[in-house]
């Protein structure tokens, strides 16, 4: 796959949709192109976060450790980005990501990602939007869970 | 050390000085004969005195002496020679005397020079010997660079002076005295005037020189301090950069240089003033002769003939006198320098030479307890570190010493290692004070490691085995020329008071490490390296280094086997695409175009990219098939891509790391180049521009850069060019280019490249980690891991071991202590640079594996991590300089005292 194809794919990722193609080409060029076989792990829960991954093709499972063992939290497909939150918060990985089919990705290192955000405010806003979206999603889930718990207690 | 240089020189070179004095005295005979001869030649054969009648002859060379009591003895009756023959004979005698004088001079100068060099060698050695015997506290006060300058520069003039120390005053003094006596013989009073002026010179000049000497002393001190400061700047460069104090250092150095300048300028002025007065006094004597002598002559009280004779005789006085005064100046100068140096090296409590005496035989085991008796130690400010500690450490006992950082635990460990000397009390083994035991016992039977490591410039192997090099254990047999040279060296060493130890001998005491020789050394080295968790690092060093194919044949001979094992293993683990191997007939997409073309490695520094690019053969290969046009247009594409991507970025942008084929500074130049050349053929570019463009294509790797510039046709062309390049490779290139050959070890490539024999795919994440593990496994399975370690041990650690990381240095420091297999192993918080987790693992390794292996030393470990105390037989707790608790781990925990607090 060539640089220009990667640029096309990057444009389909919502996070980068507002970024000029020339910048996306630069991003693609400075990122590492990595490929995984089915079952290979992109990163493990608890690892230090050093990069974000844009999935170009294939799909991966997001797995989290729980007292009852590893559970699948979500699945991500191509044109999505994974691992960006841990970079921003400077924390360790909160979940494990494992390819469930042959997977191609662009690995954007932490320094480059932060640099991109500071260079392109539109990306920062997009990230904020995604985060706010997730937060409201989680808040709704939490309040639902709480009300369920209350009802349960009342019974 | 002797305080007076003259006495020092005399006591060390007495016989030689007397010999040279005799030789000088003998050399005076032909010297004076040659003065007389010209007169004889001119008067005799040339002017014809004694040859008045034609055919007259003279007796030549009759040797006849009046010997008392015996009467006249004729040794040689002489030859009867004509005038012409006499002229020739006398001329040849003159020539002979010239040669003899020259030979004397040659001998005397060589002899004096050699004497001086031996003296210099002796002084330098003696000074270093003293440094080796300084008490530990002395090293807190001295700067290494200052000591180095003293030994190297400040004693240097002493060598030159040694040869002249006695000969010069004897010779010149004799000459001056002769001239003076001669003047006095001509006329007593005029002679007295000359003597008076000489006396004034002798009194005044040395007085004026006092200031010169003082200035000279200051010059020496300031210069020494300067070198000390330069040393500090070099050692402390990190601190200087980190604090932006470089300008403060500049100011300091400038101030010092200013001071040195003013001292030197002052010195210079005085020196020439003294010279002026000296010359004036010398010249004033003839003035007195002319005026006073003239008046006396006019009054008729002095014969004119006498006056002329006096003035003639005086010509011979100032020369030697001036030289004598110069000699005296040199003497005083050197004496001051010497005294300055000696003062620095005359240290109280110098370690007795007996304690460091050479002991080639192995030291006996220490089978007695180590007793600290009423031990008190203070730091330099006088603050007590330990108060009256008495403790006994028994052989084979493992003791953990715990306490916070100012508790005194470290001081006790340092005292056990002889690094600090107690103020009161002592440490004894079997009743003998530790400080009185020879170092051949304590240095071999006690091992010590702390956090401050020191590594000498050399290989890792040298440093690791450093603790075993106590004495030359083998006798090296020299043959032929080497034997003569060796004998000569020994002889010279003896004459200069240097020891006769042979550095070429094998100093490593293998038996004390528990092995028989260098061949089975890894039997003990490997477990130690494994225990301190450094064998992986050493494997990595080996993988990254070029292998000496002459000494490591055990590995290089099996390279094919290694490569096959790696391929098989990768296949088995389904990782085949991790490494793309080099194949002669195939393009390797993970390697650069340059590598694909060359298909081999260059022996640097004899061959470089630039040299190859300029080589006519290489150019002719590119020109065939028009490959260079393809590469040129490819280079243009790369340049335009790079310029498009990076032109807007500031030069320090992190993205530039990804740009492997040019730097941020190149971008504008390529931008201009592109404007000129884009859309036009290769003809438009000058040769330099062409090579600048083509150069870019050589670093191109398709899967990495992904510009889509490489197609099957071009790859085939490159493989074809590769074949042609190697087919008729001219001899000069053959020597410096090694073609990739799957059956051969490539000596100019690293071990890693040799084993991989291919390139790691770019798309493979953590490929190198996986490869490291796999390789270690393969090395182990093939029994080659020790060879790999051996290659890694060839690593050059750099000055002070600075090419190693701090973590590696601390691990190796412990390894070095372990290798000694001592009876008392003292570890004084040896690994603070490591993570707690790694420290714990190493502690467990040492306590559990090394100690259980048969040889059981007593281990005294000052722990950073109190929880590890449970691994030890006994725990000693220190608190503010006092021993507060002592017992087993379990009893101390029950006691609810200081240890429990520390442990929680």
Explain what the structure shows:
- Chain A has 5 helices and 8 strands, in the order H-H-E-E-E-E-E-E-H-E-E-H-H.
- Chain A has 155 residues and is α+β, with helices and mostly antiparallel strands.
- Chain A has a single domain, classed as Jelly Rolls (Sandwich), CATH 2.60.120.
- In chain A, the strands form 2 sheets. In chain A, strands 1-8-3-6 form a 4-stranded antiparallel beta sheet. A 4-stranded antiparallel beta sheet of chain A has the order 2-7-4-5, with no helix packed on it.
- With 904 residues, chain B is of the alpha/beta class.
- Chain B folds into 4 domains: 1-133, Helix Hairpins; 168-351, ABC transporter type 1, transmembrane domain (ABC transporter transmembrane region fold), CATH 1.20.1560; 370-471 and 798-903, P-loop containing nucleotide triphosphate hydrolases (Rossmann fold); 583-739, no CATH class.
- Chain B is built from 35 helices and 18 strands.
- In chain B, the strands form 6 sheets. Chain B has a 6-stranded mixed beta sheet with strand order 10-15-16-7-17-18, with helices on both faces.
- The mean pLDDT of chain B is 87.
- Classes of the chains: A alpha+beta (155), B alpha/beta (904).
- The interface between A and B is medium-sized, with 23 and 20 residues.
């Amino acid at each position: 796959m060539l640089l220009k194809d990667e640029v096309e794919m990057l444009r389909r990722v919502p996070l980068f949709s507002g970024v000029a193609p020339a910048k996306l080409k630069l991003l693609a060029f400075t990122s590492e192109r990595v490929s995984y076989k089915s079952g290979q792990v992109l990163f493990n829960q608890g690892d230090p976060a050093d990069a974000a991954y844009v999935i170009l093709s294939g799909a991966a499972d997001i797995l989290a450790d729980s007292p009852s063992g590893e559970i699948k939290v979500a699945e991500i497909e191509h044109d999505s980005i994974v691992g960006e939150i841990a970079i921003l918060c400077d924390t360790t990985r909160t979940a494990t990501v494992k390819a469930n089919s042959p997977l191609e990705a662009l690995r954007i290192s932490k320094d480059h990602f932060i640099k991109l955000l500071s260079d392109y405010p539109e990306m920062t806003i997009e990230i904020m939007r995604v985060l706010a979206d997730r937060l409201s999603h989680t808040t709704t889930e939490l309040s639902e869970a709480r009300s369920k718990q209350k009802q349960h207690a009342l019974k | 050390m002797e305080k007076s240089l003259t006495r020092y020189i005399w006591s060390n070179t007495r016989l030689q000085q007397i010999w040279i004095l005799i030789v000088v005295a003998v050399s005076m005979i032909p010297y004076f004969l040659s003065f007389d001869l010209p007169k004889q030649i001119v008067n005799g054969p040339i002017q014809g005195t004694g040859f008045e009648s034609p055919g007259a002859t003279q007796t030549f060379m009759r040797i006849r002496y009046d010997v008392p009591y015996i009467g006249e003895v004729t040794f040689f009756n002489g030859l009867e020679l004509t005038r012409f023959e006499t002229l020739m004979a006398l001329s040849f005698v003159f020539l002979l005397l010239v040669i003899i004088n020259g030979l004397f001079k040659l001998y005397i100068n060589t002899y004096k020079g050699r004497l001086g060099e031996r003296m210099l060698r002796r002084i330098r050695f003696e000074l270093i010997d003293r440094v080796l015997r300084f008490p530990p506290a002395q090293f807190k006060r001295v700067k290494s660079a200052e000591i180095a300058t003293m030994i190297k520069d400040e004693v240097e003039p002493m060598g030159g002076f040694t040869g002249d120390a006695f000969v010069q005053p004897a010779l010149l003094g004799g000459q001056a005295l002769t001239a003076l006596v001669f003047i006095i013989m001509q006329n007593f009073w005029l002679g007295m005037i000359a003597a008076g002026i000489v006396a004034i010179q002798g009194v005044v000049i040395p007085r004026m020189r006092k200031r010169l000497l003082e200035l000279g002393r200051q010059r020496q001190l300031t210069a020494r301090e300067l070198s000390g400061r330069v040393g500090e700047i070099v050692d402390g460069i990190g601190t200087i950069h980190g604090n932006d104090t470089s300008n403060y250092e500049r100011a300091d150095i400038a101030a010092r240089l200013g001071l040195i300048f003013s001292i030197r300028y002052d010195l210079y002025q005085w020196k020439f003033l003294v010279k002026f007065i000296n010359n004036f006094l010398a010249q004033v004597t003839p003035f007195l002769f002319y005026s006073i002598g003239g008046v006396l002559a006019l009054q008729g009280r002095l014969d004119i003939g006498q006056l002329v004779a006096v003035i003639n005789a005086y010509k011979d006085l100032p020369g030697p006198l001036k030289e004598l005064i110069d000699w005296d100046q040199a003497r005083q100068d050197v004496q001051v320098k010497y005294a300055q140096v000696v003062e620095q090296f005359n240290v109280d409590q110098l370690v007795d030479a007996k304690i460091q005496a050479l002991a080639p035989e192995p030291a006996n085991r220490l089978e007695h307890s180590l007793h600290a008796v009423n031990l008190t130690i203070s730091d330099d400010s006088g603050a007590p570190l330990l108060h009256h500690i008495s403790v006994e450490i028994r052989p084979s006992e493992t003791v953990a010493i715990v306490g916070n950082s100012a508790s005194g635990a470290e001081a006790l460990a340092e005292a056990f290692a002889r690094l600090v000397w107690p103020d009161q009390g002592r440490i004894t083994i079997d009743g003998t004070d530790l400080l009185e035991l020879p170092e051949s016992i304590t240095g071999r039977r006690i091992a010590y490691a702390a956090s401050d490591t020191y590594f000498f410039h050399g290989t890792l192997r040298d440093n690791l085995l450093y603790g075993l090099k106590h004495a030359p254990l083998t006798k090296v047999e020299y043959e032929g020329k080497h034997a003569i040279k060796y004998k000569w060296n020994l002889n010279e060493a003896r004459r200069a008071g240097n020891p006769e130890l042979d550095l070429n001998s094998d100093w490593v005491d293998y038996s004390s490490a528990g092995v028989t020789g260098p061949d089975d050394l890894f039997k003990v080295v490997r477990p130690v390296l494994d225990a301190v968790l450094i064998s992986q690092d050493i494997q990595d060093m080996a993988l990254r280094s070029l292998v000496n194919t002459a000494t490591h044949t055990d590995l290089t001979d099996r390279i094919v086997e290694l490569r096959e094992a790696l391929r098989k293993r990768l296949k088995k683990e389904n990782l085949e695409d991790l490494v793309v191997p080099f194949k002669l007939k195939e393009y390797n997409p993970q390697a650069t175009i340059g590598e694909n073309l060359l298909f081999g490695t260059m022996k640097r520094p004899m061959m470089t990219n630039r040299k190859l690019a300029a080589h006519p053969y290489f150019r002719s290969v590119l020109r065939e098939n028009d490959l260079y046009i393809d590469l040129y247009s490819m280079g243009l594409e790369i340049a335009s891509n790079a310029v498009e991507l990076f032109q807007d970025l500031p030069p320090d942008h992190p993205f530039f790391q990804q740009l492997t084929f040019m730097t941020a500074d190149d971008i504008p130049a390529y931008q201009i180049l592109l404007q000129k050349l884009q859309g036009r053929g290769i003809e438009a570019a000058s040769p330099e521009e062409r090579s600048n463009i083509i150069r870019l294509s050589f670093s191109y790797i398709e899967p990495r850069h992904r510009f889509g510039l490489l197609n099957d046709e071009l790859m085939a062309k490159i493989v074809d060019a590769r074949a042609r390049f190697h087919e008729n490779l001219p001899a000069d290139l053959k020597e410096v280019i090694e073609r990739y050959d799957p059956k051969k070890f490539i000596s100019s490539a690293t071990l890693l490249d040799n084993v991989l024999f291919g390139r790691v795919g770019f798309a493979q994440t953590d490929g190198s980690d996986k490869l490291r593990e796999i390789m270690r496994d393969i090395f182990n399975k093939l029994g080659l891991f020790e060879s790999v370690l051996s290659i890694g041990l060839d690593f050059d650690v750099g000055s002070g071991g600075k090419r190693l990381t701090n973590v590696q240095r601390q691990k190796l420091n412990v390894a070095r202590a372990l290798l000694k297999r001592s009876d008392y192993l003292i570890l004084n918080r040896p690994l603070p640079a490591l993570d707690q987790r790694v420290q714990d693992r190493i502690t467990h390794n040492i306590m559990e594996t090394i100690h259980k292996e048969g040889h059981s030393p007593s281990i005294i470990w000052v722990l950073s991590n109190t929880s590890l105390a449970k691994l030890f037989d006994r725990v000693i707790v220190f608190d503010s300089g006092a021993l507060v608790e002592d017992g087993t781990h379990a009893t101390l925990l029950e006691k609810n005292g200081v240890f429990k607090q520390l442990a929680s």
